[in-house]
Write a structure and sequence with these properties.
Elements lengths: L26 E6 L5 E4 L3 H4 L5 E5 L1 E3 L3 E6 L2 E10 L4 E7 L9 E4 L4 E7 L5 E5 L5 H8 L6 H4 L6 H6 L7 E4 L11 H9 L3 E7 L22 E5 L1 H12 L4 E4 L1 H10 L9 E5 L14 E5 L6 H10 L1 H13 L10 E5 L2
Parallel strand pairs: 1-17, 3-12, 3-14, 4-11, 14-16
Antiparallel strand pairs: 1-2, 5-6, 5-8, 6-7, 7-10, 8-9, 9-10, 12-13, 13-15, 16-17
Helix pairs in contact: 8-9
Length: 343
Amino acid sequence: MRVDLFDFHLPQERIALRPARPRDAARMLVVRGNSAFADHHARDLPQLLKAGDVLVFNNTKVIPAQLEGYRGQARIGATLHKRLGPRSWQAFIKNGKRLSADDVITFGGDVSAIAQQRHDDGSWTLHFNGDEPVEILLERAGRMPLPPYIAAKRGTDAQDREDYQTMFAREEGAVAAPTAALHFTPDLLAALEEAGIGHETLTLHVGAGTFLPVKADNTQDHAMHSEFGRIDSETAARLNAVREAGGRIIAVGTTVLRLLESAADQDGKIQPFADDTAIFITPGYTFRAIDGLMTNFHLPKSTLFMLVSALMGLERMQAAYAYAIENEYRFYSYGDASLLLPD
C-alpha cells in the first residue's frame, strides 16, 4: 500500500509533553466496530470489558539508554537500540560520520565504549569497557530516552525516570516504554480484578527503531526493525485457555500485539516464544491471537498507525483520529489512549 495513505495533519499542540495525573485519569476513545465513538477515561476499563477477558501487558523495563560523549573533540550522541551481548549494544549514533572502527567514545561518569562495527543502517556496535555490568554504567552516565517528538520540545528531567516507566516494568532491556500501560495504576488493576478481568505479562524489549520514520513510498519496501520477545509456556497455556472459555485477549500496546501475533500458529494458538520478531502488520493482515487493543495515538505514516488501521480499517481509523484531534485528545507516548474493539 502507498505510505501516504496513512498521513494526516496533527497540530503540534496535540502532542503531550507530560502524562496525565493520576495515570488512569487519561482520556480514552473507545472505537467499537462501526458504532459511534465513545469518550471515556482509562479508569473506566472495568465497565468497558467483560468478566473473563484478559489484558496482556509488556513487563519490559526502560533503561537510561541515551548517552552523550566525545571521540576526541567530536561530540557523539548514542541511543542504544538492541543488546547484542553482555557488553555490546547496537546503537543509533548522532554525528556518526565522525566515527571509525576502534574509536573510543568517552561518556560521563568514567564510562567509555569502543565503536566496533558500522551497520548498513548507519548504526554502530558499541562495546562497553570495564567489568561493571552495563546496566550500572548506564545508570551512571545515561538518561531516559524520551521519544524524539518530546525531546525536541523539552529536556529530559528527573521526573521522566518515573513517568516513562510502567507499573509492570520488571525485565530491563527496553529503550522505549510500552506506553499504553502507562495509564495503569494499582487501583485500576484492583478494580479490573474485582470485575473478573484478569491480566498476564510477557516481555518484548522495545527498541529505538520503533521511532524510525517510514522512508519508503510503499509499505512493501519498508524494512521493519527487530526486537527480542519472550512468552513462557505457562503464560501461553493460560492465554489459550481464556479463549477456549469464551474470553477475549486484549493487548495493552502494540508491542504486546506484535509479540502475540508472532507467537500464534495458523490456528490462533499462542505458542511459547523466545526470539527476535520483525513482524510488520498492515491492512490485509489476518489477526490470529488478539481480540482487541488498547493503545495510544500514533504518528502519521508510522508503522503503528498502519497496525491499528489493519485492525479496525483505514477509513475507520482516519475518522477516529480526526475525531480525537477535533476533541483535543493528547497524542503519542505521554498522551491519551484508545480502546479498539473490532467486530
